[in-house]
Amino acid sequence: MSARALTCILVSRGLDGLLAVCTAHLETALAVAGVAEDSEVVIVDNASPTPYREAVWSKPGRRLIRLDRHHAFASANNLAARRYPNPYLLLLNNDVLLHRETLSGMLDLMEADPRIGICGARLLFPDGSLQHGGVVFGAGRRGPYHLDRCRPADLVPMQDREFQAVTGACLMVRHALWSALGGLDEDYAFGLEDVDLCLRARGLGWRVWCYHGADSLHFESMTPGRVRLDVGSRRLFMQRWQGRYSIDG
């Protein structure tokens, strides 16, 4: 097993066409990073109304897990991570199209500093504005939010930097750290389990960085009911973390 080998987890429900494009970009990025042969792409079919067909989605280097009932983002990722461990885990949304250099850059950044336990990535909306470049925290009830969200990407420097948290839409984490933390906290219905993970990692002395060397594309969530679910997750997050993070936004 390569020390750079990845388990790449994509939790998906329906949206077969989008998932196909996502996996194609992912596999190109794995090849550019030189880890395609040692890594695994794990597709978690999160109770799709029409189940993903093994004959369509399975091939060398891919795994398909079928869930017969819908799971939250945290529990679906935790299940896949337990089943297919590798030195690094990548959590990837099915609506993210990776730049071919993104995984290579993320791995290089983490290997350059063994204190970095989690690395996120620069993500753009289809209109060219920034969707994610790192998470900062506002005062009071504002809490965590994406720095420079919706700002034209060409106005945001492509410079790697440290943050308190990054989004789970494209998040690389060392497996040893993931195991120490017990994975994502399954108390979150949907949303902020990624920020919670980052804050817990920092509590153990690890660093969280965001790779800005390439622009990947994020269509953002197409999951029905997300806004409703986010309300409960945000309430839980603020109950647990308000007053415990630094105000940097």
Automatic annotation (TrEMBL):
Pfam families: Glycos_transf_2. GO terms for molecular function: transferase activity. InterPro entries: Glyco_trans_2-like, Nucleotide-diphossugar_trans. Gene3D superfamilies: Spore Coat Polysaccharide Biosynthesis Protein SpsA, Chain A. It comes from the Bacteria. Residues 37-129 form the Glycosyltransferase 2-like domain. Keywords: Transferase. PANTHER family: RHAMNOSYLTRANSFERASE WBBL. This is Glycosyl transferase family 2.
